[in-house]
Design the sequence.
C-alpha cells in the first residue's frame, strides 16, 4: 500500500486539471466547511469528496490509507464530542475533518509535487515586493509534503515497537520515541540543507 498523499498517475480530469486550480478549490472548500458545519452540509461535503475519488479512479484502499494514520485523533474527536455535545455534533465535526483530510490528500494524489510547488511559487511571486522569497516558499512546501509520508513511517515503526514491548497503553512509550526520532530526522534534514547552501 502506498504512503499517505503520494502521487498516483492517471488520466482522469482531476489528474489533468492544473495544480494551481485544485489548490484554489481546496482553499475554497476548506473555508466552506467552516460555515457549512451542520450535518446536511457535512454530508454533502463527504459525498462530493467520495465522488471525486471515484471520478479520479482512486480505489477504496487508497482512500482509507489517507485517514488511517489519523485514526487515534479521529477516535478521540468522536468520543470527546459525543460525550460533550452528543452524537450529531460529533458527526458534524468528525465528518468535516475527514472531508478536509481526504480533499487535501486528493490534491496530492492527483498532482505531482513539482506541479504543486510551481503553482505556489507562481502565486507567491507578487509577494517578492514585500521581501518574501517565492523559491524559499516552494522549498518549504516541498519539504512539508515530503515529510508527511516520513512521519507516517515513523508513527508506524514506533507503534510496532510499542506493541512488541507490551506498552501499547502507555502514551509516554509512544510519544517520547516518536518525538526523539522526529527531531533526529529534522537535524539530519537541517544539516543537509546547510550543506547545500540553505542556511536560514
Sequence:
Amino acid at each position: 500500500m502506498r504512503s499517505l498523499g503520494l502521487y498516483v498517475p492517471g488520466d482522469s480530469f482531476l489528474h489533468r486539471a492544473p495544480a494551481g486550480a485544485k489548490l484554489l478549490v481546496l482553499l475554497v472548500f476548506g473555508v466552506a466547511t467552516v460555515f457549512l458545519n451542520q450535518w446536511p452540509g457535512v454530508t454533502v461535503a463527504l459525498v462530493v469528496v467520495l465522488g471525486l475519488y471515484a471520478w479520479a479512479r482512486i480505489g477504496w484502499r487508497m482512500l482509507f490509507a489517507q485517514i488511517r494514520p489519523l485514526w487515534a485523533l479521529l477516535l478521540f474527536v468522536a468520543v470527546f464530542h459525543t460525550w460533550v455535545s452528543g452524537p450529531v455534533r460529533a458527526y458534524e465535526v468528525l465528518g468535516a475533518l475527514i472531508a478536509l483530510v481526504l480533499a487535501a490528500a486528493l490534491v496530492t494524489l492527483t498532482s505531482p509535487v513539482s506541479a504543486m510547488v510551481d503553482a505556489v511559487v507562481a502565486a507567491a511571486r507578487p509577494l517578492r515586493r514585500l521581501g518574501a522569497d517565492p523559491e524559499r516558499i516552494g522549498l518549504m512546501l516541498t519539504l512539508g509534503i515530503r515529510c508527511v509520508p516520513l512521519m507516517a513511517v515513523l508513527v508506524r515503526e514506533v507503534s510496532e515497537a510499542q506493541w512488541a514491548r507490551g506498552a501499547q497503553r502507555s502514551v509516554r512509550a509512544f510519544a517520547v520515541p516518536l518525538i526523539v526520532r522526529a527531531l533526529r530526522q529534522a537535524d539530519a534534514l537541517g544539516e543537509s540543507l546547510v550543506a547545500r547552501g540553505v542556511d536560514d
Observations:
- The radius of gyration is 19 Å.
